[in-house]
């Protein structure tokens, strides 16, 4: 059973509507997204690239720019070291493009997920030194690589860190002592001494800010880097950043650029995934394009995704795009198999009674453990850890629910773990094989989650009769896009709804089309994706539903309809 919660946030909706030429209903939805004050509302509705803050406000940005200017003038060899996920790959590409367009002698390296692990390591630093690299420039990593950076410095290299992760700290006498790495410049908006107004950027956005600042310091027009905003947008959505403030502007602008992209690799990927004639949304980045770019870092090497972004010819771009799509199709099949195996394990054992699920899948590819844990978390609405075999015992990932801090709970079991890290919602861990059952018992013994915590919360923006589902409203809702984490699609509700004329559609028989009639007798076309068998059995039952209005465009005709997202007996 889900907990349905109605948002009730007050404001002068009529006044806001009048000032910004929007309906009071839209003003209410904007307030529900915690956008408060005329300046914030104005930026939310009309923000452009011109509203982004100056990157030079970031701590150490001036140092990083000055060092890079000197290195460029001296013709020194530079190496960008990124990371293997979608943010790291796009950040690497942004730095490479920005530097090469200035004539820099620059190349890149990216760690291998399986052999190197995350971020900078001694092996990568040594390789840079052996290759005659003068300056290492990190992106999407480096803030926690103090030892590796010290190693590079001892060998005479210059190191610049650009990152967006939390700065490591130790607690002394109840106070946090932050531990910055010994790099020549550390650009990270999460530094406690950084006064940049919006610290929630992804690694690619920080990289873009650095290149923008460098170009301007060299008397070049930074607008010539605008095409790289599409890479910032891909990374922001792919790394699941909150779509607020500057992130929202980057994604909004980047999506428009993506539809007419001049990047041959992205153009080929858009075509081979069937998006060529579609309006590209944040959803398409999150669930179509992004997984293809991430698949290379999971199952092969992230360098393949970077080669796609760097492709210069149509032939090369097409080949790489189809390779990445095939890799992602393979990743999807492997994921589905692992999810089914995990569900069977839970259903057929005492695991189902646990409040924290610890699932051992010996044959699951270790790079898929986090995806599988996320799917299991969704299915059971419980924190879930998925562990698989690794070279040294077991390795895995966890995904959490709102009321459970994964990192804190792992800290309480640290004596059973070899390594762990992460944050409230997600974590990675490794342990000796013989500690598996002890870990499962301890993590559950420490668990304080209540039955209410383990009940999924459905947050509703407002009750709205079907008579309000008009083409005008639906087109106005588009002003709230792009949707994603931190700026979710509005959720509307209606009570005492009767569903009529149900018919199952779709190749996989997982779509239900019908007419929905509300308590006032208003009728609207409706569609539902999911467990259609269960809903189709409610034909003569009065239901409460949550829904989102859309336009069904067919043969040039646009008809309002609703997508039902949740339902329960009224």
Quick structural gist:
The protein is 39% helix and 21% strand. It has 19 helices and 20 strands. The mean pLDDT is 94.
Please render the helix and strand layout as text.
Layout: E1 3-6, H1 13-20, H2 24-32, H3 38-46, H4 61-74, E2 77-81, H5 86-100, E3 105-109, H6 122-130, E4 135-138, H7 146-154, E5 158-162, E6 169-172, E7 175-178, E8 185-187, H8 203-217, H9 229-238, H10 245-259, H11 264-272, H12 282-299, H13 303-310, H14 314-347, E9 357-360, H15 369-380, E10 384-390, E11 393-399, H16 406-411, E12 419-422, E13 426-431, H17 436-445, E14 457-460, E15 462-463, H18 471-477, E16 492-505, E17 511-517, E18 523-529, H19 532-536, E19 543-554, E20 557-569
Parallel strand pairs: 1-14, 2-3, 2-4, 4-5, 5-8, 9-10, 15-16, 18-20
Antiparallel strand pairs: 6-7, 10-11, 11-13, 12-13, 16-17, 16-19, 17-18, 19-20
Helix pairs in contact: 1-2, 4-8, 5-8, 5-9, 5-13, 6-7, 8-9, 9-10, 9-12, 11-14, 12-14, 13-14, 14-15
GO molecular function: 5'-3' exonuclease activity; nucleic acid binding
Protein name: Single-stranded-DNA-specific exonuclease RecJ
Pfam families: DHH, DHHA1, RecJ_OB
Q: Please state how the strands of the largest beta sheet are arranged side by side.
A: 3-2-4-5-8
CATH architecture assignment name of the domain at 55-224: Alpha-Beta Complex
Summing up helix and strand content along with how strands pair, one would put the structural category as alpha/beta
Strands, count: 20
Low-confidence stretches: none
């Amino acid at each position: 059973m889900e907990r349905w919660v109605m948002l009730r946030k007050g404001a002068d909706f009529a006044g806001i509507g009048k000032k910004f030429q929007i309906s009071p209903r839209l003003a209410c939805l904007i307030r529900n997204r915690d956008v408060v004050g005329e300046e914030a509302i104005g930026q939310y509705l009309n923000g452009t690239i011109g509203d982004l803050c100056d990157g030079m406000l970031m701590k150490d940005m001036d140092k990083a720019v000055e060092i890079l200017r000197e290195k460029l003038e001296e013709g020194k060899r530079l190496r960008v070291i990124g990371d293997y996920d979608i943010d790291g790959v796009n950040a690497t590409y942004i730095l490479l493009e920005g530097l090469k367009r200035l004539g820099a002698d620059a190349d890149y390296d990216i760690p291998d997920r399986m052999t190197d692990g995350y971020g900078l390591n001694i092996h990568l630093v040594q390789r840079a030194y052996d290759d005659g690299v003068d300056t290492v420039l990190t992106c999407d990593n480096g803030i926690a690589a103090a030892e590796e950076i010290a190693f590079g410095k001892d060998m005479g290299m210059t190191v610049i860190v650009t990152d967006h992760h939390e700065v490591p700290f130790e607690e002394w006498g109840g106070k946090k002592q932050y531990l910055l790495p010994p790099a020549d410049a550390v650009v990270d908006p999460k530094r406690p001494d950084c006064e940049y107004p919006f610290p929630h950027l992804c690694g690619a956005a920080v990289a873009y800010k650095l290149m923008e600042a460098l170009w301007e310091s060299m008397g070049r027009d930074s607008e010539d880097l605008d095409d790289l905003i599409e890479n910032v947008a891909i990374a922001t959505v792919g790394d699941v950043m909150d779509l607020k403030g500057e992130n929202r502007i980057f994604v909004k602008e980047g999506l428009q650029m993506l539809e007419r992209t001049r990047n041959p690799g992205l153009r080929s990927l858009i075509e081979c995934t069937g998006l060529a004639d579609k309006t590209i949304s944040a959803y398409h980045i999150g669930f179509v394009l992004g997984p293809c770019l991430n698949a290379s870092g999971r199952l092969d090497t992230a360098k393949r995704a970077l080669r796609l972004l760097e492709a210069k010819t149509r032939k090369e771009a097409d080949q790489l795009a189809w390779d990445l799509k095939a890799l992602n199709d393979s990743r999807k099949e492997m994921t589905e198999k692992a999810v089914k195996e995990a569900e069977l394990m839970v259903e057929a054992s005492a695991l189902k009674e646990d409040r924290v699920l610890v699932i051992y899948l010996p044959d699951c590819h270790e790079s898929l453990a986090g995806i599988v844990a996320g799917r299991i978390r969704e299915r059971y609405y419980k924190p879930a850890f998925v562990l698989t075999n690794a070279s040294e015992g077991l390795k895995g990932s966890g995904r959490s629910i709102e009321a459970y801090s994964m990192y804190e709970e792992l800290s309480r079991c640290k004596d059973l773990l070899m390594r762990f890290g992460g944050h409230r919602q997600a974590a990675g861990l490794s342990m000796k094989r013989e500690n598996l059952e002890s870990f499962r018992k301890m993590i559950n013994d420490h668990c304080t989650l209540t039955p209410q915590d383990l009940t999924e919360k459905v947050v509703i923006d407002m009750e709205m009769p079907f008579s309000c589902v008009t083409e005008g409203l639906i087109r106005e809702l588009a002003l709230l896009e792009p949707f994603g984490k931190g700026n979710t699609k509005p959720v509307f509700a209606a009570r005492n709804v009767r569903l009529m004329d149900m018919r199952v559609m779709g190749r996989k028989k997982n779509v239900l089309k019908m007419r929905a009639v509300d308590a006032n007798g208003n009728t609207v076309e409706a569609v539902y994706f999911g467990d259609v068998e269960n809903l189709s059995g409610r034909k003569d039952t009065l239901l409460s539903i949550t829904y989102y209005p859309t336009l069904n465009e067919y043969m040039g005709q646009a008809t309002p309809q609703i997508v039902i997202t949740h339902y329960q007996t009224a």
